[in-house]
Amino acid sequence: MPLLEVLTPNEQKLFDAPPRFQFYEDRQNYFKLDEKLDAIVADLRGITNKIAFIVQLGYFKATGRFFSPKSFHKKDLKFVATNLGSPIKELNIADYTLSSLDRHKDLILEYLGYTKFDQKIFIQEIERLANKYTRPKQILLAIIETFKKLKIELPSYHMFAESITSQYNQIENDLLAKITVQLTEEQKQKINDLLPVNNEKNYKRSLLTELKTVKQSLKPKDIKFNIHNFIKIKSLYNTFEELITTLNLSKEATNYYAIWVFKARTAQLAQFSNIYKRTLHIISFIDFQYSSSQDFLVDILLRSAQNTINSIKQLQKDHDFEKREARNNSTKLLIEYSNKSRNILAEIEKIINSPILSDKTKVKNVRALFAENKQEFDKLYAGQFEQLQKDVELAIKGQDYFDFMEKLSVKLQLRVSDLIKQLVFNPKNSDQNLIAAIDYYKAIDGKIDNKAPTTFLKSDALAYLYDNTGNIKTSLYKALLFINIAEAIKSGNLNLVHSYRYLSIDEYLIDQQRWEQDKKILLQRAGMLELLDFKKLIKKYKQLVNDNFNLTNKNILNNQNVHIKFKEDGSFVVKTPAVDKLDFTKISTLFEQTQYTPIIQVLEAINNATKFIDSFKHYTIKHHKEKPIDSIFFAGILALGCNIGIRKIANTSIGINESTLITACNWYFSLDNINAANNQIIHLINSLALPNMFIKQKYLLHTSGDGKKIIVNADSLNANLSFKYGGNSQCASIYTFIDERQILFHSLVFSSSEREAGYVIDGLLCNEEIKSDIFSTDTHGFTEVVFAIIELLGISFAPRIKKPQEQLLYSFEDRKYYSDQEYKILPHRKINEKIINENWDQILRLMVTIKLKETTASQILKRLSSYASEHALHKALKEFGRIVKTGFLLTYFDDVTLRQMIQKQLNKVELANKFSAAIFFANNQEFSQSSKEDQEIAANCKRLIQNAIILWNYLYLSKMLVECKDPIKKDHIINIIVNGSILCWSHFNLLGEYDFSEKLANKKNYFDLEQILELKVA
Questions:
Q1: Are the beta carbons of 369 and 352 closer than 8 angstroms?
Q2: Among 148, 221, 478, 509, which has the highest number of CB atoms less than 10 A from its own CB?
Q3: Dihedrals phi, psi of 412, to nearest 5 degrees
Q4: Helix, coil or strand: residue 736
Q5: 758, 786 Cβ separation under 8 angstroms
Q6: What phi and psi values does residue 649 have, to the nearest 5 degrees?
Q7: Cβ pair 557, 822 in contact under 8 A
Q8: Alpha-carbon distance 283 to 257, whole Å?
Q9: CB 950 within 8 Å of CB 608
Q10: Which of 281, 211, 212, 214 is nearest to 253 (CA)?
Q11: What's the gap between Cα 863 and its chain centre?
Q12: What SS3 state is found at 838?
């Protein structure tokens, strides 16, 4: 069996070769000597040994690997020789013996605190990652990162490739062996029944093809189709449950085989020569569909229940509006009655207090006054007050809410009655009252009687549940049951047994037993070992918060903070002067001579420079067939990234075969591949000097993110109504991440009804090329929990806060840090340190889960933040976040430069959104994709085109600076660049006919990378 291609041939060469340092500063950093090193080098014999040792040490610092002395770069040898004051001609690398090399390796490992390559840990890590069906390249990258944190020497590429290939083969062989032993004849027949009949006379659509289909609309007929399919899936799951349990596939492995089934034509499965391999794919598909279909059904339930609640509220508003005139008349009547009553009371008071009337006369006069007005009162107000009283009581008790719920119940039942009967809830971690009601509902097939459980209902609902005869109102009961189920799922009080998105929070975290056993190793792998000592950590934050209060208060008292203004009532406002806008017009003039470069030419030029098309791997890990030509991938990227559509671009372009393009997009255009291609481009941008001109603080990279609503014109459970942006249309949100060099380093898509805050963390953790030091977002992009998590990830969180004075401050109330006057300036509450301390271990467990990417942060936070009675972990995170947020706010109040810096960075996201609209120009800039994954593939193809344009612009401007020999003109060009934006696209031709034909393709190298990489700018 051939070795898997873990890296491309070009990447393999780079991996096994010493690193190439482009800049003098890099060599100075990696080859510098300290006092301890000076002593080690002094003990080495001969100049060759000294130079070779220092170079090997520098390479090891950079890569964690040792290299053959024959591969050492001459520039590095010369640099070290010069530093040692020795002529390079005295160096003879042939004199550097193997015994010296081995001895030097030991010295380097000891000096850096590393251990020698550990075969056992290496294989364990490969096995762990391969069992999750991690792509081979990602396994290599993950092990490199882990070994660096554990300080273990890395092996050669060949050992990686050999071990990864061996592990993958072993995993699949073990799985097939288990299936061979356990597969029954009945199960074989079930597999065959799913496949098409190879008989021309008896052709029909295969059952497997039907089971792949999920309809994402809320139409009753489409919901029934989904339920009908799920019942079949459920039956199949029950048939294969024992075998699925025996195989014990990881979630990732199950998804790998299942998605292969989704992508493949059913005939491809039928052609498998190995029945057991076919079985492995199909039962993985069944397992996957059993969980994901329940997630879809829950999505339908949640949407249907929410739509019902929204309709009830709208009916209440309409009803209230209709009653307004009657209510106004009743109010006028009540005022009139009140005025007359007061007049009568005044007359009575006058009679009672009369000094000349006897008591008998007083009684007589009062009775006369009463009789005189009673008839008039009865005539004017009889019956009207009773109706007014009834209306008021109904409004107070909310009876109209339940009346409308009962009226809308049938519509809700049509969508979810049968759905509820199919979902499998977990009684171990769910609300027992609801579980009892659901079980009863299933047992009597939805035919509600007076024995139906009601303990899950609140008292206000119970008051209206029964009719005048004492019987349960069936329609109202069902609506209440369904809405309570939906609310309990959202709040985490009701969880599924088999699901990807609706499990209990504990099931998303690293297993508790594994956590207890391997806590320190896991923390070390996550780079979080220093967080283990809570007492030491909280002491640091106490000092930080107290110092910030002290400084901010002093600057207010001394009138040094001129942008904070206090009002008479003690409240205050914080103003931020407007920032200067960047001059985009001048930088555009630098591109005028390019004369509308065709977008295909841009993609080709950037691929020549980065080989990003190499990142498009076939979905099958062991795939060895020939890959389509580059132009097919360019066409696919433009079809999805410009929103043109695959079929349309194939039928309106030159040189593209529709069938080939559809096949390539199906098997090669995965989210992982497109993100990897983006990272290839970003990697080269990172290597250039020019982008660093945009970094305001050296060694601190400022990044930001923001969301943009986009209409979805297909039925999609990943979209919601957003009247502000889409009117009556459904919308999704594209959340884009950008750094201060204007690199677009990630994109996410989620429903417009979801809060952006949880997705912020996903974007910060997903990218290997961009490591944020400071991250900014708008007001809607932060919560106190997000403040906590981002801080523990080692990133400074600096959101823009529209009304900072309305944010609560918290302190430890340590009075020794403040005078009485200073202490009272900014109001604050006390931090609950106890709850953080009590839950610190679980906070660390959550952080390691996120950092090691066992589960996405958005998934965990979505479940955690929805709990009705706040989860202790959520409370603790929130409390810790308050400490971090307070520290930030105090600086935010005090530092106008920080506020302006945040504003400038967020302006770049807004410009990126305009850039995005220019690229995603077709079909009204609306998503036509239904699924979240397909939407994200389109969004990230768009980002790929944007990053290709950004890199092209950087390369073009770098080339201009390389070729410019006039220092004054060069400084002028640099000044234009740094005061503008690289996000320029008017000099590219994005529209028109696309020509992908080989004869028209320009294969020249557009940019001299070697020259450009040598460019230095101040």
A1: no
A2: 478
A3: -70, -40
A4: strand
A5: yes
A6: -70, -30
A7: yes
A8: 9
A9: no
A10: 281
A11: 14
A12: helix
Inter-residue contact 83 to 100 (CB < 8 Å): no
**Can you say how many angstroms the Cα of residue 509 is from the centroid of all Cα atoms in its chain?**
17
Q: What are phi and psi of 720, to 5 degrees?
A: -140, 160
Other C-beta atoms lying within 10 Å of the C-beta of residue 326: 13
Segment 245-256, tens digit of pLDDT:
999 999 999 999
Q: CA 210 to CA 86: how far, in whole Å?
A: 76
Give the global pTM: 0.89
| Contact in structure between 704 and 737 (CB atoms under 8 Å) | yes
- Report d(CA 329, CA 514) in Å as an integer: 70
Q: Which two tokens stand for residue 474?
A: 């069936």
Amino acid sitting at position 384: Q
Q: Give the amino acid at 542.
A: K
Provide the phi-psi class of 414: left if phi over 0, else alpha when psi is between -120 and 50, else beta: alpha
| Identity of residue 329 | N
Q: Give the CA diameter of the chain.
A: 136
Q: Cα(first)–Cα(last) distance of the chain, in Å?
A: 53
DSSP annotation string for 780-817 = GG--HHHHHHHHHTT-EE----SSGGGSPPEE---GGG
Q: Is the pLDDT of residue 822 over 70?
A: no
* DSSP tag of 336: H
The DSSP annotation for 973-999 comes to HHHHHHTS-S---TTEE-SS--B--GG
Q: Which residue has the tokens 């889409």?
A: 726
Is the pLDDT confidence value at 203 over 60? no
Q: How many residues does the chain have?
A: 1018
Q: Match 């990172």 to its residue by tokens.
A: 686
Q: Which of 445, 482, 448 is nearest to 467 (CA)?
A: 448
- Helices 872-894 and 784-792 sit at what angle, rounded to 10 degrees? 90
Report domain extents, the chain: 9-175, 323-395, 584-678+940-1013, 688-929
* Distance, CA of 1012 to CA of 1009 (rounded, Å): 5
On whether the CB atoms of residues 720 and 711 are closer than 8 A, the answer is: no
CA distance 100 to 92: 14
pLDDT by residue (tens digit) across 389-407? 656 555 554 568 899 999 9
Q: What is the pLDDT of residues 915-927, one digit of tens each?
A: 999 999 999 999 9
The dihedral sign for the CA sequence 669, 672, 676, 679: positive
φ and ψ at residue 8, rounded to 5 degrees? -70, 160
